[in-house]
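Notes, Module 5: Reading structure tokens.

Key idea: the token line is not a picture. It is a compressed description, and you learn to read it the same way you learned to read a sequence, by spotting repeated patterns. We will look at two proteins. The first is printed below with its tokens.
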Amino acid sequence: MDEKSKSLELSKIKTAIRSGIPLSITTYTLPHDMEMYMTEVLSLFLKELNQEFMISYLTYCLQELITNAKKANTKRVYFKEKGLDINNEDDYKRGMESFKKDTLNNISYYLQKQKAQGLYVRLLLQFKNDKIKIEVRNNSIITVYEYKRIHDKLNRVQQYTSIEEAISSVLDDSEGAGLGIIILVLMLKKIGMTEENFQTVCENGETVTRIILPLSEEMNRNIDIVSEEFEKNINELPQFPENITRLNQLLSNPDSTMTEIAAQISNDVALTGELLKQVNSAAYALNKHCVSISEAVKMMGIRGIRNILFTIGTMDAFAKIGADTEQLWSHSYRVAFYSYNLARNFCTGERRIIEDAYVCGLMHDMGKIIFETAHPDFFDNVKGICEQKGVKTELFEKVLAGINHSEVGARIAKKWNFPQTIIDVIRYHHIPEEAPQETSKLACIVYLADLMTHYQEMEVDYYQIDSSILGMFKITSERQFQKIGEKLKEAFDNN
């Protein structure tokens, strides 16, 4: 892989890791350069997660799995050519007697045949919920005999204490998967895993071999240390505006009247102007132009006003840093606008979701914004403490790059007394399936809006978006997804 390609892949890998989305590479014939490309991407992926110690072991595992998938596809072509039923036990045994010799002598022919029949090998890498997932998929359904063979080999692994012992004990001329699977599991054991970390399943017309690995204990410990130190030092970050904090307390008081709330807002000239500007923006789509705070309070309601105040307060807090806020907030504004309009169109009648969508979309990347805008002295202080506790500089910088930005953002939001709904969406917008039930749909909306903007910026591909969440919005094709995105983009750009 040349330096330009490596830089491009690293950018995609970082985006995938930060967003919890999968990376996928598909090949039909698996030439040697594609095999090398796949192992290089795996290496970059593990390095970005500070799991370099796994690279040599998992490279072998990957090569074994993609070779087996390629053989499975070739086997389907070969059996079809021979007029044999691969699912018939007698035919299977007869075919395997000559499979290896016949295909090795004419491998190019069989590879082109499997390509013509659309038989592929697909690598999928994903980091989500603190786990690394490596999958090799091929669209040849595994037979009962093949599955039994793998299962038998997994059962035999227990009797071997080393790779050398396995090699000397197992000789197999008919199918390479036998010894290879045993060595694969022994490789996993060398990095503290077991055969339970390895799975072979059939899903949606594909055979899937899957390795699921937790991050190393050291990595998890270090991420926890960095997050804790951010939280401990959070008082050094910009403070939430006191006037808006007081207003939030008033909004939270069940005895407060709309008149009292409007009067309190009106006492702050700057806040009044900004609030009316926000209320009258296209994002809130009011039926008529609002000209007074009293009218705004009545039209938006307590929940709507609170969300706008948190929006204003957050932008005000970050503006005090003196950074280029327009550039920093550009992505968040777009996600907020998309989130609100997705909620309006797909959550008709669910008023709370519609009311909260804009502010949740705007705040979703608060952790990233903190990383990019906090004063260098803040980072130096946290970094110094982390180094004293054994956290390497490289790991600290990877956390700053966004590996844990959702958790850090949620902790800041909690420090600023944000409503629990906003805190939850910040924390779970990359893993909405983990969100509490009451905020799950809102987290899904922000997840989709976020990835839609990244898709439009050509930073992610359609396949990387969770199909179950697309299904929630009745999106069944990439073209449909594009059309929705184009309409939202046009509306936002004209806003």
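Here is the second protein, with the sequence above and the tokens below, as before.
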Amino acid sequence: MDEHPDSVQGPASLPGAALDRRAELSEFLRSRRARLKPEDVGLPDFGRHRRVPGLRREELAQLAGVSVAYYTRLEQGNGRNVSAEVLDAIARALRLTDAEYAHLTHLAKPKQHKKKPSARTPQLRSSIRQLLDTLEGVPAYVIGRRCDILGWNRMAAAVFGDWSELPAQERNWARLVFLRPDYHDLFQDWEQKAIDIVCTLRMDAGCHPDDPRLSALVGELSVKSDDFRRLWATHDVKEKTHGVKRLRHPLVGELALNFESFPLPDDNDQVMVMYHAEPNSPSTQALRLLASWGTDATRAGAV
């Protein structure tokens, strides 16, 4: 018998509402279970007799070596007394990535007495600002929690736009990508950039469910962007530490830039992101042009 349709409906089901950790845990586990097919894990598939997507609860419980009742309680959001060993077994059965496992752990076993998010705007150390300024020819910026852009250098402004012209609250990658059509044009693979941002916000929400500024941001994006609502509903999480971004720059045309992310040692909520082009590539020449144009390129290239 297939289980009845899941009935847990909480604030986590409504994008932008204050995070209900139990509902979030429930929806995350259901979404990970739904993406697995019986044949993916070596179980028989009875085809048309299945009425739910993915694995049944009893199948997942069997794979994890726990009782159906125990797993059902966990999937209903009751992770209060779950052990690390059981979470490990469920994570293996669900074939979770490292980022997904970390997210599951944050939801099921939140740290007690965790410091509440500060209402103050995060500050960037002066030495980090000086470091950004010394990176000649290298676009670089620092982001904080909620995808806030905390600091950047002249080359980042030349490539991505002059953020100094924006109000402080608008210096946020999520708002730029989902609410600004010019940034939709800037990224050749806009969908992937959007996915990366939503995955980052979802991880942030799992770690900081009581952050009112994050809830307000998710709420605003949910109201204003159909794309954000669609991607937020997937419950996907991942960490993007390096890769390639392909851009359509208004002055120099197409750019292919490698990026690397470096958490700052004294504040892991702040990450420095630096971009570079392959040696002797057209993108390298384009960056040199932008650097030689200086302030004029920053102003004219603002998206």
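Summary for the second protein:
- The mean pLDDT is 85.
- The longest helix spans residues 190-207.
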